[in-house]
């Protein structure tokens, strides 16, 4: 039986009853975070909580838990999570007027891509019909209002691909439906800037802090001239794209270098 | 005790248990409709179901209910709804992989704006910091991923206003956070076209079908030279805006005429 944190209590995952009047269900009004758990230990907790706190401030939602209490709840759910690897999800919604915000943390087994995928790359598709808006009030928020990204992911699955790449209203590449994007270009190793509307992912942040990657817009043409295109996320780390819309992409040595970088302890988050 | 329809069954509203793994809760992946119920009878059911069906096709979500079964479920929940006036909500989500889509219909008491509001108008604000994207894959969908509109509505409430007006990425007025927009201008009575990204509201549709209103983009300047600006929705009908950002707006006779139009039986929906 999996353990969940729900509105202040640790309990079996099945115990939770969600109100159909929860603002998360009615209006997608909330935020979430996805963390990787390795053998009971959640990774990059500080970076995830940093982002969550910034997001909650932006949507003017206050929760009763202190940061220390959230850390303890994450640690407890992670400790009881399936091994060796699990995916931990933290969800905060505006809840109901009577009860206040909903806070929920759960874990589920996670099977990362095989080592072969890290060598040969995965398939990705572009979905030009699903554009995101860099000027959206939700840009940069890991919002529960995630339907556009889900529609993109469903297209990827239908095409037998691992991920769908999304562009913004100016045609600049932003991110995958559940990952950030890194392109190895002659001018440097780039990841789209937040001003292009991307989500500030935690692996992306560590790569930027390491100095190995810098912010720079990625155009559709860049995708075709890059020496390597990588997906990054808490769950997958740094994963090369092997084919884009069915066309093979080169996979240079840089991805392996970035992956080794991530294995090092994270840089202490800036204040 | 209110009656609800939930996944095929009519039951007391409190009986429903929603899974925290419902895609509506996890990702805002679903659609909703809000209908007005007068003394047990839901209004404009055909127009709402037309829109719902188009939306479900767009997000590739199939539900087990036939249209006739949805009509019967709406009628049953409406018949048991609080009187004299209620707000009926129909929610469809992608549910869970095991269970399939979630279908839920509930009703709650609704107090419409006072007759004085229809004479003197309500307060509205603009929220230029919350722009919507006319090219979004969600444009025109009454999506559960509604957080941007909710954030706009929260601003309106904080400002003591009834509604917040939203513009698109080109600065064209689109709609309110939960209503459509109609402007009485020298060149005609206009409501933003769907190509500007607005939701195709059912009252808006009836006004267009009547020939009294036509589609045309509304600019920020139009708001200040109009002889009347109106909000429309299933719940409120046609309601004048009395002040915009605190500045009084004229209220001409057209709103009353449009309101009387709505009291007439709806035009038979086009095939």
Morphology call of chain A: globular
Helicity of chain A, in percent? 25-40%
SSE order of chain A, one letter for each helix or strand:
EEHEEHHEEHEHEEEEHEHEEEH
Number of helices of chain A: 8
By DSSP, the count of extended strands of chain A is 15
Biggest sheet descriptor of chain A: 9 strands, mixed
Specify the oligomeric state. homodimer
Question: What is the largest interface, and how many residues per chain?
Answer: A-B, 46 and 45 residues
Rg estimate of chain A, integer Å: 18 Å
Structural class, from secondary structure content of chain A?
alpha+beta
Percent in strands of chain A: 25-35%
Mean pLDDT of chain A: 95
Show unreliable segments of chain A.
Answer: none
Cα end-to-end separation of chain A: 38 Å
Task: Tell me about this structure.
The structure is a homodimer of 271-residue chains. With 271 residues, chain A is an alpha+beta fold. In chain A, strands 7, 8, 9, 10, 11, 12, 13, 14 and 15 form a nine-stranded mixed beta sheet that branches. A six-stranded antiparallel beta sheet of chain A has the order 2-1-6-5-3-4. In chain A, a hairpin with a 5-residue loop joins strand 8 and strand 9. Chain A is globular, with a radius of gyration of 18 Å. Chain A starts with a strand and ends in an 8-residue tail after the last helix. The model of chain A has no long low-confidence stretch (mean pLDDT 95).
